[in-house]
């Protein structure tokens, strides 16, 4: 998921580790909100963000960034300064029953992703409208559905036809509203990890899903011996190789 749904965590990583998200603007704007929340005025916030950039942004050029930073600091001053912090999203049993009734795994996965996004946007916008305003390609990526642009359009149109979602009247926008949301029911799935979150649904549906023993990432359990995700498996392999080389050298020294 590309959405930043925990701005507090992002700010903490930025301040403690010098972390800058691949979308640089998101890190900067979150930090500016944070500086304002501390009671800083516009000049203080402007100086603080420039200092951060000097310390952590490679080859930062204050002249090139001047107008952009001035604009963001001025704009955010007029906004709400509280940082977004979404730690979980609840999908109810009735919502899951509706999704399962679609009886098509591809459509089910897309519906689940649209629903989860709609609840996130509700929290972000402070309403219960269930509108999703994110690129269609991101929806398909999170649903782990591979399809070209034409096929994506056809699949989304299927969801519109059956009444799962509806498009905005503004033809220039791709926003979709989820129509089957029903928060007035018991929790069926509580999503607390937004990496590979579609696997929460697939596990509920009966597939064998596991968590990486190192990082906790959800993934399909393809064998009983599988313990790690791809990245952690590579890291473990390197660790084992280092230990093996160390033991070999120690053994040779003993000889």
SS strand fraction? 5-15%
Oligomer: single chain
Category by helix and strand content: mainly alpha
Count of distinct strands = 7
Order of helices and strands: HHHHEHHEHHEEEHEEH
- The coarse silhouette is flat
Roughly how many Å apart are the termini? 54 Å
Quickly count the helices: 10
Brief summary:
With 255 residues, this protein is mainly alpha-helical. It has ten helices and seven strands.
Give a written overview of the molecule.
The longest helix has 25 residues, at 230-254. The model has no long low-confidence stretch (mean pLDDT 92). Strand 3 and strand 4 (176-178) form a beta hairpin. This protein folds into 2 domains: 7-77, no CATH class; 89-204, Arc Repressor Mutant, subunit A, CATH 1.10.10. The strands form 3 sheets. A 3-stranded antiparallel β-sheet has the order 2-4-3. The chain has a two-stranded antiparallel ribbon with strand order 1-5. It has a two-stranded antiparallel sheet with strand order 6-7. 55% of the residues lie in helices and 9% in strands. It has 255 residues and is mainly alpha-helical. The protein has helices at 7-17, 24-37, 42-56, 62-77, 93-101, 105-125, 136-143, 149-161, 198-204, 230-254, and strands at residues 89-92, 131-132, 165-167, 176-178, 187-191, 209-211, 218-220. The chain has 10 helices and 7 strands.
